[in-house]
Amino acid sequence: MTLIEATGLHVSLGGHEVLQGVDFAIAPGEIVTIVGPNGSGKSTLLRTLIGALKPSAGRIRRKPGLRLGYVPQKLLMDPTLPMTVMRFLSLPRRVPAEERRAALAEAGAEALGERPMSGLSGGQFQRVMLARALLTRPELLLLDEPTQGLDQPGSAAFYQQIEHIREHLGCAVVMVSHELHVVMSASDRVVCLNGHVCCQGHPEIVAQAAEYRALFGTGTHGALALYRHEHSHVHDETCGHDHAAAQAPKAAEAG
Questions:
Q1: Which of 33, 142, 165, 211 could be disulfide-bonded to 199 (CB atoms 3.0-4.6 Å)?
Q2: Which CATH class is domain 28-49+138-246?
Q3: Which H or E run contains 12?
Q4: pLDDT tens per residue, the chain (255 residues)?
């Protein structure tokens, strides 16, 4: 049973069609990474999957009662606002303190509860955002560029935490990222997006696909082999063949 499935998805923003004919599905327990150049529709796809955007065509089917957790690409907060992490986790609705502490522990941020939000480092802030997403005990966790601005060791530690969460909670994970060498190594499946799905499959298979190399070059293949991570899930490669469409310029879109 799939948790969420998009079929023939088209999404337009400001009169420009950002996604065209996207088919996407995720099964329980999978870690799926979405990669693609700037403006390829990655953030748009996530926002459509969670219901923040409406497709202009196609449909999305979700498992009835599906619990979603979402970590956005950015969250702007007033730095002068005096608010602790524990207080932040209880907004906009009251959450029992033990649930907030458990979510912080799950995100690897148990020591941050009484820290002011304005005093957090970038990595600490992202772990608090992850804890917030975990409050729902999600069956599907979606993360949009969650390590943007972090150094490579910080990014690797964050993704190790994500894999721990997947194993502990049994949730599926969809991540958007540009960090090919780290993120793809931690994925069961990679989806290469550029307005449409160019190719998808196991990281090592995608790295060899002509559509992937047309977008990212050949230099990332060695990095993917270096960071190879074994999983029990095996996925077949599915690749399109419209190279010109895969390289077609897209209007600017956040992520």
A1: 211
A2: alpha beta
A3: strand 4-13
A4: 799 999 999 999 999 999 999 999 999 999 999 998 888 999 999 999 999 999 999 999 999 999 999 998 878 787 778 899 999 999 888 999 999 999 999 999 999 999 999 999 888 999 999 999 999 999 999 999 888 878 878 888 888 899 889 999 999 999 998 776 666 677 889 999 999 999 898 888 887 888 888 887 755 443 333 333 333 333 344 554 333 333 333 333 444
DSSP 57-121: EEEEEE-TT--EEEE-S-----TT---BHHHHTT-SS---HHHHHHHHHHTT-GGGTTSBGGG--
Size of the chain, expressed as the number of residues it contains: 255
The amino acid sitting at 149 is G
Domain locations along the chain: 28-49+138-246, 76-135
Handedness of CA 26, 31, 34, 35 (dihedral sign): negative
Q: Which class for 15: exposed (0-12), middle (13-18), buried (19 or more C-beta within 10 A)?
A: exposed
